[in-house]
Amino acid sequence: MSEWVIGVDFGGTNIKVGLVTRTGRVLVTEVLPARAHATPARFVDGVGGAVDRLLRARAIRRAAVRGAVVGAPGPVDHARGVVHSMVNVPGWREVPLGRLMRRRLGCHSLVENDVNLAALGEWRFGAGRGVDQLACLTLGTGVGGGLIVNGALARGVSGAAGEVGHMVINPDGPRCGCGARGCLEAFIGTAGILRMARRAGFSQRALTPEQLSEAARPHTNQVGVGARRDNRASRQVWQEFGRWLGIGVANVVNVLNPERVVIGGGVANAWPFFAPALRRTVRRLALPPAARAVTIVQAQLGNHAGIVGAAVLVWDK
Amino acid sequence: MSEWVIGVDFGGTNIKVGLVTRTGRVLVTEVLPARAHATPARFVDGVGGAVDRLLRARAIRRAAVRGAVVGAPGPVDHARGVVHSMVNVPGWREVPLGRLMRRRLGCHSLVENDVNLAALGEWRFGAGRGVDQLACLTLGTGVGGGLIVNGALARGVSGAAGEVGHMVINPDGPRCGCGARGCLEAFIGTAGILRMARRAGFSQRALTPEQLSEAARPHTNQVGVGARRDNRASRQVWQEFGRWLGIGVANVVNVLNPERVVIGGGVANAWPFFAPALRRTVRRLALPPAARAVTIVQAQLGNHAGIVGAAVLVWDK
Hints:
Two copies of one chain form a homodimer.
Chain A: E1 4-10, E2 14-21, E3 26-33, H1 40-57, E4 65-72, E5 76-77, E6 82-83, H2 97-105, E7 109-113, H3 114-125, E8 134-139, E9 143-149, E10 152-153, H4 184-188, H5 190-199, H6 209-228, H7 232-256, E11 260-264, H8 271-285, H9 288-293, E12 295-298, H10 305-316
Parallel strand pairs in A: 1-4, 4-7, 8-11, 11-12
Antiparallel strand pairs in A: 1-2, 2-3, 5-6, 8-9, 9-10
């Protein structure tokens, strides 16, 4: 008998609900608008409805669902199934989401940090296959991380491990959204990319502080487009991006001596433009025994990494 | 029947050989000069002689020795018992020290990185007792680290994990011994302390570049002595030290979310002078869920941490 896992990825704009096999194949997904499902009750309702439709469409019985996992953008208490808070979604404070989901879906339900889930997916079925020591970084509006140490997810004592985006790499650097100065994310999150792009002469018009947060993603793409046209200024921006990212990755390599580093997230689509500077910087800054042991590669599972990770989490239980 | 472990700590000036019980009690030690035992053959000879004397003096039979562990200042292949290289000791390249020790001592012999060994000691019998997520930093000429993740030592894929001293915390910072710029160690290793002390008006005389390496330790102490006399300039140096150390510790806290951070090594004797700035900085820079979860304490086992760690390694096998 086939068995399935329900994976739910709670993103900034969309909630993605998918059915995934034990072997990490995502069979079918449905996308819900995040805004319309931003409270815990509406979220559970919306996801429940989507699961009903997905199961019905594929004629899958509920008994064939082995479990469900929600990947949440924020710190969670995995053992208790509680979401401590969500980044950029107010009203989520100590929500017992595992219990609420189990009540609605009628199956074993877990919560996990979204980046940890993506790391589990890449580890078992993507670019991180076959290693016991792995660091996954996701590059987007912010910079996240998920760590596999000694063949297991490193959650830390309160589920907050992996925040590589908030390593300070220059205390005189730009202010970060977290309040500190000079975090990796302040340099290479979308706001940081925009800062670099502006200095290089890009997109001057849209870059008043008020417009920054809204404009971040399109303008980031614009820089990428520039690189594809062999625009020199754009190439410089992505090289600078690669150097800053390289400092962050070198720090992780020196601390954890991983066998592989996987770089994912939307901004990782600019991989060809920043990868050479990234690798050069890591070779220069990581100590030789760690630098020799690591390979740095692009993620393979794209948007589905979190849903695939749900399968890993449930089947490994 | 009592059983014993032989712990060997290969330091820059001394080699310490000790007998330790299963409960982490160091019964007796002997100290050998490192210079006279700097080659693998002389090292094994010297340690073998010391072990003979220690066992004879306590009337301990060889059969009661459960195993031996050498803590080496450099990367090792723990599984194969090979020392890749030693910091500041030439001539150690891929030395099968575990095999050489077993031949001489007649017991199961392991090698481990010295800071990892100290971390194991503090974890089981010192300031890190009772937690599954622990970071130990050792502050001396350099800055080392040993990490316990999910209740096990994190060695990384090639035994090179824990090099927290080589996280870059400011790419425009001073040059580090490793060749990079702005490593944590470049700021707060003894050379960094001397730089801060010099700027504060201390010890101008001895601080030509040639004298720096030799003078490091006494001058470091001098800064400490100044603090004890309530010398304002000295207090400033240690506060600055605490802030830089705090950046490094905050980075480790953001990446690994440990329950406890233990600070050891000779320079940690200045604890009362830098601890407040260290704790303030970590509270400011670590994300709240990780900052709330961690306590930062001084190491408890002093010079014996590595020998105590030998007992942990052997008994946990």
